[in-house]
Specification:
Nucleotidyltransferase, domain 5, 19% strand, 241 residues, two-stranded antiparallel sheet, 9 helices, single chain, alpha/beta
Length: 241
C-alpha cells in the first residue's frame, strides 16, 4: 500500500500492471462524452467563459507524439490547484502528477503564478503553467491516458488538448445515472466520492494536489478492479436521492 496524508492507497504489483492497463483502456471516454463534459479537444473558437479565464487558442497544445524509441508513462493521474484573482486570468498555484500504474510521484510542486506572488521562492517552485506543462511532457505523450477528477479543469489550466481520458467524476456520475442527467442531486465532488465510495476522508480546509491525484487514481483503480462495488454503491446512492 501507498501512504499519504494519513490515508492508504493501492499499490499495483508489477505483474498486475499489464492487465490493469488493458482494463483502463476500455474505460476511456468516447469523444461525445468528452464534448458533453466540455473538454477542449481542438483549436476551435473558445467559449466566452474560457476566454474570460484567460485562455487563448494560441496557447493550446497537444502532448508530444508517441515514438516507440521514447518510453513515456502509460497512464498518469494529475491534479492542479488553481485560483482566479479578481479581474485577472486563472492562475495555477500547485501541480501534482502520479504514475497511475506504479503510484510513483512524478511531480509535486508549488507553482509561481505569472502575477504577483508572495509565497514560496522561485527556486523551489515551477514558474507558471508553461513550466508545469513542460515538466508533465517529460512523462506523457499523446497515447498516455490521463486520469483525474473533473480533469477538464486541470487540462484547461495547463492549456493541454488531450483525448485519452478516464475521469473519476464521470465514472461515478455515469454509474449513478445512466445516461447522466442533471436531475439527480448527488454532488460528485472528489471528497464526497472518496468518502462515500471508498471510505477515504480527504483532508479538510486545504487542497493538496498530490492527495487529490492519488484520490482520483484510487477511485478509478477501484472501479476497474471491482466494478461490482461501483454498481452496488451507485444503486445505494441513487436510492437516497
Amino acid at each position: 500500500m501507498l501512504q499519504h496524508g494519513g490515508n492508504l492507497y493501492s499499490k499495483v504489483e508489477f505483474g498486475q500492471q499489464a492487465n490493469i492497463y488493458k482494463t483502463l483502456l476500455v474505460q476511456r471516454h468516447p469523444q461525445e462524452v468528452l464534448l458533453r463534459e466540455r473538454f477542449l479537444l481542438g483549436r476551435e473558437p473558445l467559449p466566452k467563459d474560457r476566454v474570460e479565464k484567460g485562455l487563448c487558442i494560441e496557447d493550446l497544445v497537444r502532448a508530444p507524439k508517441a515514438y516507440p524509441a521514447i518510453q513515456k508513462r502509460k497512464a498518469v493521474a494529475i491534479h492542479c490547484v488553481r485560483k482566479q484573482p479578481k479581474h485577472c486570468p486563472m492562475e495555477l498555484l500547485a501541480f501534482a502528477a502520479v504514475d497511475f500504474l506504479s503510484g510513483q510521484v512524478l511531480i509535486n510542486s508549488r507553482v509561481v503564478p505569472n502575477i504577483g506572488w508572495n509565497g514560496s521562492s522561485r527556486s523551489e517552485s515551477l514558474h507558471g503553467w508553461r513550466e508545469a506543462r513542460a515538466n508533465l511532457f517529460d512523462f506523457i505523450d499523446q497515447d498516455t491516458v490521463i486520469i483525474g477528477h473533473k480533469v477538464q479543469d486541470d487540462l484547461e489550466i495547463l492549456r493541454l488538448l488531450h483525448k485519452q481520458i478516464v475521469d473519476s467524476r464521470i465514472l461515478a456520475t455515469s454509474a449513478i445515472c445512466t445516461p447522466p442527467a442533471k436531475g439527480h442531486d448527488y454532488k460528485p465532488y472528489l471528497e464526497n466520492v472518496c468518502m462515500d465510495f471508498l471510505g477515504i476522508k480527504l483532508r479538510q480546509g486545504t487542497t493538496c494536489p498530490l492527495e487529490n491525484a492519488l484520490a482520483s487514481r484510487e477511485i478509478v483503480l477501484h472501479c476497474i478492479r471491482w466494478p461490482r462495488d461501483l454498481d452496488i454503491w451507485a444503486k445505494e446512492t441513487k436510492g437516497r436521492f
